[in-house]
Amino acid sequence: MLSPGEAAALLKVSEDELMVAAQEGQLPGRRVGEQWRFSRSALLAWLRGEQPR
Predict the structure, then answer these.
(1) Cα–Cα distances in Å, from 33 out to 12, 26, 30, 42, 48?
(2) pLDDT tens, the chain, 53 aa long
(3) ∠34-22-20 over CA atoms, to 5°?
(4) Domain housing 29
């Protein structure tokens, strides 16, 4: 699992851009309490244009 900062670095976008996209449901991510977490494999699948299972 990646933190927002790690996920933003993987996607080469700002953390602010990442968070807006996640909150709008454009990126695969989950809130765990007050924090967001991102699956590296889900983000890479999203980049390839694959649909979530």
Answers:
(1) 25, 20, 9, 20, 29
(2) 999 999 999 999 999 999 999 999 999 999 999 999 999 999 999 999 987 66
(3) 95
(4) 4-47
Quick check: is 16 in a domain? Answer: yes
Q: Which one, of 31, 35, 18, 36, lies nearest residue 46 by Cα?
A: 18
Asked whether residue 52 is domain-assigned, the answer is: no
- Does residue 10 fall inside a structural domain? yes
- For residue 13, tell me if it sits in a domain: yes
Structural contact between residues 30 and 37, judged by C-beta atoms closer than 8 angstroms: yes
Contact present, 21 and 37 (Cβ < 8 Å): no
